[in-house]
Amino acid sequence: MCGIIGLVCSDPSVNCASELFDGSLFLQHRGQDAAGMVTCGRGGRFYQCKGNGMARDVFTEQRMVGLVGNMGIAHLRYPTAGSSATSEAQPFYVNSPYGITLSHNGNLTNGEDLKKYMDEVVHRHINTDSDSELLLNLFAAELATYDKSRVNNSDIFKALTGVFQKIRGGYACVAMLAGYGIIGFRDPHGIRPLLIGERLKNDGSKDYMLASESVVLKAHGFQVYRDILPGEAVIIPKATMQPEFKQVHPMKSYTPDIFEYVYFARPDSVLDGISVYRSRLDMGVKLAENVRNAFKAEGKDVLREVDVVIPVPDTSRHSALECAVSLSIPYREGFMKNRYVGRTFIMPDQKQRQSSVRRKLNAMASEFYGKSVLLVDDSIVRGTTSKEIVNMAREAGAKKVYFASCAPVIRHNHVYGIDLADETALVGFGRNEEEIAKEIGADRVFYQTLEDLKACCKLDEQIKTNELELALTPVVSRDETINSQLLSYKLPPQIDGFEVGVFTGKYVTGDESEYLKAAEKARALNAQLKNGKLGRGMESLDLADVKAAVEISMFNSGDY
Fold this sequence. Notes:
21 strands; 20% strand; 20 helices; seven-stranded antiparallel β-sheet; alpha+beta
């Protein structure tokens, strides 16, 4: 799961890098492993800065000076299958044809087939293990078939149709064609989010931004926005600044990943018309019903069994508050968070996660001592973090520790860009609720049901209406002939479900068992290399297919 942004400004004298940097800060929660940015100058030349680390560390003031041009794309990486090499920081670049750079959020599940196609059919070399490089080279290969000195929108859309026909998985991408414009597209199931925003300026001109979440668009004045639909693509040529949309592949379903609403997205985002914040409030209400009914089934009163509801910061805070209100039980902030430590869920390995929990959270004995506490978290994945948190609550004097999850039991891996763990490492794998409680040291665990979770993630037409009204208010001096390019489109289709494979083992793209086997093998090999268990000789390095220290395709100011 990554964060992506694309921006093209109507004023050719403006450098967009600073705005891309600001946008990256708003999406930092989506990936803290690496950050990258590529801009395009007036003559069509690309300028790049990327590397491992947070956006603020990679995009230093000195490096930003060299990123010129009024259009560009950015990326924030969350590693999948244990990969975190600097050479795999995005955006990726190919010089032929035309010069293309691409940022990708998601995961392709037929990567092995694509590697074979790249080698045997189109003869393009892939230098990393990243499926994003595969995707970029496939797009480049499709464009190259036209053998033209210059391409147009129609050529690009046709090339994307060819790409969609060959790849499988969940993906949302922004790409940039040197000197031409910005491109955005989304998988046929709408698994990964992507939105386009329009900034109407007083002089009648318009800027356009593509982003993973609506919060980026609103924060930068792109108040008119909409979701890119499943199987849809958009091209914004900088010469015309007129976005063109096209359904390049039939919509197979409209099933966003429900994990976006449970955990990954910021609460102030609206994705596919669904408010993340309001979804999490409803999760708290449903969770309260489950907890109350579970105690009632044993002839117990929840008010006698639980003294206080305490959230595990930060994602579950809104759900925990609503849960406490619904149960008429006091809500307290029992854990204080050190905000200078990253999200433990995103930590690449288990040891880092364990040590980071204690650095990140501190339990206040005044809120735990002698009390029966109900801890509320967004989910329980490996159980590592949950176990540490339960231990901290007991060390602070809790009499009993109940643990409630806003998500159902996670029993299967995620295949569309969230690297949860191998199935056997999931605490829910092969265990019932009693066994899970014992594993994490809790007196009892409570899980949201899948049907309740789906019911919490619903469209809110009032939000969209209110936001549209606010969006049109600031630009008061424009005349009525200045129309939005985004508001003229017909109403989007309704969501017909969610991607919930982590709970059911049934993925919207079909049987992904071969991909899961390959991912487990890749994790094991990367872990061996990282732990130095393959030896020190050249044969060992070759066996592990050691990753390049830096990317070799284009000058990167982040390397210096």
